[in-house]
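hey can u check if this looks right to u? its 99 residues, i copy pasted from the old doc so theres a chance i mangled smth
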Amino acid sequence: MKFRVSSIVLVICLVIMMTTKASCRSKILRCRCIKSLSICPRNMDKIEVLQAGSHCSRVQMIATMKNGQQLCLEPTSPKVKSCLRDFMAQNKTTFPPWD
């Protein structure tokens, strides 16, 4: 009886682990930015740069606004580069290496 209960619990745990791992993998291995903007948004709180890799073939730049909204920015746009220089200077952070 104990063996049967243990076997059922083990199978349930394995199924949960397999489905969780598959869903995490599908979220990580794709680009987060579908559309990138070539604008300089105001009220930026932080900027996250995701380098190109096996998950996505291009550099992705995600700006989080002070209200929590996230925008994808085009890292090669001159407007965005200028805006980022100003943002980094205000926050005393070094500019990303692709410039």
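The chain has two domains: 1-30, 31-99.
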